Structures are given as C-alpha cells and as structure tokens.
Amino acid sequence: MIFWSFSFLWFKIANKTFHPITIVFIRLLFSVILMTVFLILTNNYMKIKKGDRKLFLMLALFEPFVYFLGESFGLTYVSATVCSVFISTIPVFATIGAWLIFKERLKAINYAGIITSFIGVIVFILNSDGSISFNIKGLGLLLLAVLSAVGYNLTLSRLVGTYTPVYIVNVQNLIGAVLFLPLFLILDFKHFISIPLTFDMFKPIIELSIFASCGAFILFAWSVRNMGITKANVFSNCIPVFTALFSFILIGEKLTVQNIVGMAIVTGGLFMSQMNGTNKNIKEALALTGKTA
Predict the structure, then answer these.
(1) Which residues constitute the domain of residue 247?
(2) N or C: which terminus of the chain carries fewer CB neighbours within 10 A?
(3) In whole angstroms, what is the distance from residue 74 CA to residue 89 CA?
(4) What whole-number distance in Å separates Cα of residue 66 and Cα of residue 146?
(5) Residues linked to residue 126 through DSSP beta bridges, in sequence order
C-alpha cells in the first residue's frame, strides 16, 4: 500500500519533465519486461485460451488504457492527495456495478458506506466558506478512470478463476503498451527526443514500474494468497491516507484539518461499503481493481 501511495507522487515528479502518455508508455514497457522475467523464472507463464482473448483485450482497454489516460491527465490538474481520494472510491463504484450486473445483495451497512464515502469526498473539496472548489477537467478525468476501473473489475471477474493475478496484469500491461505506442509516437515522441535525457529524469518512472506496477502487485498477490481476499483488500483503504502524508512531507502539498476529516470519512465509508458477502470471483476482482497503478 505504501508503494501504491508513492505512485501518485512519483507521477507528479515525472510529469515535470515528461508528458503523461510518455510516462505511462515507458512505465508499462518496464513493467512488462520485469513481470515477464519474473513469470519465466518462476515457471508461471501461461497460455491464453482462445475464448479469453477478447476478454483480455477488453480488460486492457479498460485498464491500463482508458484508466491511465484518466488518472494520468487528471493528475496534471489536481494534487496527488485529491487524486488518491477519488481513486480510492473505485471499490464503492465496483460494488455498485456488481450489484447492478451480478445482482449481488448489499447489506444496509454497505449502502451507508457508499453514502458516507461520497460525503467524505465533498468534505475534502469544500472551502472554508462552504463553497466547493475543484478543477472540473481534473475531476472529470478521474471519474473516467474510476468508471473504467469498474468495467475492468466486471471483465476481470471472468478471468481470475483461470489465470494467476501476476499473469493477468502482465498481459493487460503488454496490450496496454501496444495501445499506447501510437499515441506516444504521434503526440509525445517529438517532445521526448527534444529534451536532453538523464537518468534522474527516468528515476520516478523506473520507481513506478518496479515498486508500483510490479513489486506492490506481487506483494499484494502474495498477501491475498496467505491472508485471503477480504482481509488483504481492507488495507487498500489506507492508500489516500499514506498519499496525503507523503505528499505533505515530500512535495509540500497542503494538508488541512478539513482534508484529514474528509479522508477519515472516505476511509470509514470504504470499510463499510466492502463489508459484504460477494462470491469469490467478484471479491478477487474487487481486490485487483485499480491495483496496476
């Protein structure tokens, strides 16, 4: 969770030099290389069934393609802390999606948690005079990321019973890198080759690939295997808290008492919204949603 929390900060640092699409493309490329080596060394490389190819393509379109477009460009308009708070609501929207499509039953505490989470977001972005100040482009892009993560979640539920988590992420990142390649060549390549490149510039992207896209996911998959889906997933509610703390310490983002109260409400609502008895595949999908960040 600490690695995933740092991912928002590393992106903000990388964004000072590189454009969002460049960051995402290079990050995905590095992560694919690292995860492929890991799968080969651990003898866990699998073969995709013919009937699942469309599902993997759909999975990659939702995440990382659309998800990273929304999250990465959203981060250029809002702070790392605000972004992490909105992204942390993914399990809430995913729970609603599972209820609408898979007819999963929700308990009263789940409904209360969903409402509480949105109240927390409102508290977080409220000004001292009661007005709401936000960047409409930034929040719109983050909403796109959240909704794409819901689509990812619903597609992922069809695959988690057949393939290992690390293999799924490796394949979706590989397809995602292919999808981002034309955008990188058309929109960002001229800018990329026009700047004097140094290792320090690539450092935050390498950190994103190693610690967020690979290390954190592998650690999480190991935790799920040993602790169970539900217990492991609860820890993801700590991400906005960690992000706010690290943003305050490392890059000087302001953190007010109101922000802290808002985050506490959001986190409490997230805990409440996930206290349900969904089936195994849905719970695994909820656990993995958004975790490629």
Answers:
(1) 2-288
(2) N
(3) 15
(4) 10
(5) 132
